[in-house]
Amino acid sequence: MKFLHVADLHFGKTLQGKSLLADQRGWAEKFIALVKEIRPDAVVVAGDVYDRAAPSGEAVELLDRFLTGLLDADERLSVLLVAGNHDSPQRLSFGADILAKQRLHIAGKTARAMKRVVLHDAHGPLTFWLMPFTFPAAIQQALGAEEDADFPRTYTEAVARYLASQDVPPAARNVLVAHQNVTCNGREAEPGGSETMVGGVGGVDAAAFAAFDYVALGHIHKAQAVGRETVRYAGSPLCYHFDEARWPDKGAVLVELGAKGAVSLERIPLAPLHPLRVAEGAYEDLLAAEKENPARGEYVKVVLADRRVGPEEADALRALFEAKGSVALEIVSSFRPFSAPSAPGGAHAAAERPLDADFAAFWKAFHGGTDPDARSLALLREAARQVETGRTDLAALLATACAEDAE
Ligand SMILES: [Mn+2]
Questions:
Q1: CA 373 to ligand 1 centroid distance, Å
Q2: CA of 385 to the centre of ligand 1 (A)
Q3: What global pTM score does this model have?
Q4: Architecture of domain 2-269
Q5: CB burial class (10 A; 0-12, 13-18, 19+) of residue 208?
Q6: Per residue in 334-360, pLDDT tens?
């Protein structure tokens, strides 16, 4: 029995405001071609199918085409899908019972009896257990244990309790499909860089999965094993953040199960339409180097080390990359004139200086030496508070301020 494991598709994702739908469509086509070539028994998608709970029409259309393409590629193929923390359990579950009759198995919500799909080969049955993203309160409710004051509060204990309630036969072959933050002895997996931990997700220790021959994980975007080789994150299909350009080898995991306990794994790389790259350096050096660089068709983040980004620099860099079929998606500066050794206090002092003092210095530089007024200071503090609490809506904040100015 062999199956392909992927996760964290995040269909509908944008990067620096740029839609990645064309890139995701390109990946989907490559993956379908791979399925036609390898002819696996199943394809497993371990959550974060969409980037958001209410996906755009285009993202839904892409998933529709992807799933139809897979199921049309091979009439024996089963497709197994669980919801991640980015997906809406209800929306993803639409039509699930009807679709199951067409070899498409979707698990959105935490159910008292976990959804399972049994496939057969020469070694007998193999059960895929579908556990969508879950958390202690959802498990407590699914198990009808709302009145149990002693119900476990930690993810590890709650998931262990949930799995124990499912009667997983230890002598048979079992595969778990899950979307969790899986840890090993308290150590977290290394993040890829594009994960956004919506609401904070507690760790589930890999030891909770002892009953399973293979655990197909989603949630962490860097492909890796956790605890043992057969508890594994497939990683996202594309780099979804420039921080993730450090781990460019994206692909699928091909899992082959023989008799009970016999598992072999192979990583199959899938190249992106546009590789991500960070280009950093002094402006003139960078221009010269990029003119020589033969790389084409990239998404590039440019970091200028020796100056601020002015319109002239931005225009020149955009045009240079465009001529190479690339896109300079982000142009920023790491230049810090105030942290130069000659500046009073230096970089270390700047990090400890309160926000108000930094703002006052900035204001004075732009307003002929006058101090900031109370209202501007209040606006800044509110913006800082929103950034700190992760609830940033600077556009709304500025709109309110402008409306007040107009009155
Ligand atoms: Mn994800």
A1: 43
A2: 26
A3: 0.82
A4: 4-Layer Sandwich (3.60)
A5: buried
A6: 988 765 555 455 445 555 556 777 777
